[in-house]
Amino acid sequence: MLLLALGFLLIILQPSSGQFPRVCANMQSLLSKQCCPPWDGDGSPCGELSSRGSCQNILLSQAPLGPQFPFSGVDDREDWPSVFYNRTCRCEGNFMGFNCGECKFGFSGLNCTERQVRTRRNIFQLTTSEKNKFLAYLNLAKNIPSQDYVIATGTYTQMNNGSNPMFRDINVYDLFVWMHYYASRDTLLGGSNVWRDIDFAHEAPGFLPWHRAFLLMWERQIQKITDDENFTIPYWDWRDAEDCGVCNDEYMGGRHPSNPNLLSPASIFSSWQVICTRSEEYNSQQALCSATNEGPIRRNPGNNDKSRTPRLPSSADVEFCLSLTQYESGSMDKMANYSFRNTLEGFADPQTAISNPAQSSLHNALHIYMNGSMSQVQGSANDPIFVIHHAFVDSIFERWLRRHRPMLEVYPAANAPIGHNRENYMVPFIPLYRNGEFFKPSRELGYDYEYLQEPALESFQDFLTPYLQQARQIWAWLVGAAVFGSVVTAVLTGLIKACRKKKGGTSSEIQPLLIESEDYNNITYQSNF
Fold it and tell me: Residue ranges of region Disordered (predicted)?
């Protein structure tokens, strides 16, 4: 029984997040461009002997990109991850991971066949012990090295095309800070030149799916290092807040008594050091963030530029945003009008949905309001408020998905900014995930939000959901079949009646009224589906 239990833990605690798997961060893997590590369960690459997966060539999307990035072959993140690897594990069924050693989000068990849905809760509704456990988990993640992943400290060119690997260890929390930085950093063009209008996680359609995947991976890493498989990220509902309700020592850290830009010494977060906050320094050196410590977390909530962000978002702002029917529109960047994504991200007015980059609303408003480490995109994940803020943003995304029930085709397949098309792989995650894979209801990914649950309808909806999804995918064919069937039925009925009447005689009194061909062509058939 003990061996069985250990085997089960081996399955559920397999690596799950992104960036460079430690087992692939070496010269041999880089020169062969192959990352297909063995699964510990059977020792074969990708668990192939156990039919978990196999080593396959990466299939890159060939869909055209938008005009925002006018270069090619200058950034390691283009056609991710092909600069580093062009063969990775392709997992079967419900298996997932860089070696197919874990279960997809929403599944568990030895063979990943057990469905599960965990609930994310309001941080203010946690018990004192639950809240303290969450804070302790955050601090543990900041102080425990990642066993499975390392980060790159140089570009592929600086690594001499793989013959001089440049990687380093990093703690679990900072691994995610670094990934957020890497996805949003500027392109290094050589000399002192950079290209700033590029971001693989923001200002485009992938903003919401990318952060959804990011939080799921972060959540699973916490589950792994704490051996608490039921852990979920709490969310901070900031609608109609008059101030930062979590900015106190009971929660995410209060204000320092003598320096309003720092955290209270009574908070565990006051001792945290930030990384990846000096983007101009990295750009001038044409270097990547190496994750060295750069000082304490800075935060001065409410003392922000009021002309840019006059207040925190209101319930009315959120409701208007949810009423927008288009997920994406126009240029599909921060200039998009009437776009749900752009309005929720905060680049469009939450009362008109017209783009206004000079203002920061909804998601962006919280970052600006914090007036510190959270307010600079590349280093914003240093502040632990980041995760509870984005959990609530994700819940608004979930509300929109449930209200409008979009098909996958609603997510743009082409012409989005680089990295944001539906079939593009998300930077910098390994194992690989496509943007479209997270454009789906949260329950399909194994989690829900406490304030969105409908207990009375839950089981019935779970029963109907797969059938409704299939019907939505083939509704056009069904309607076409119904119309075609009604046409055929009408024609056959007319012919049969005509034949019967013809047999009964051809006198003028019983002769059928024939329809002229031009009138026949004007008949329309309708079907209500």
Answer: 287-313
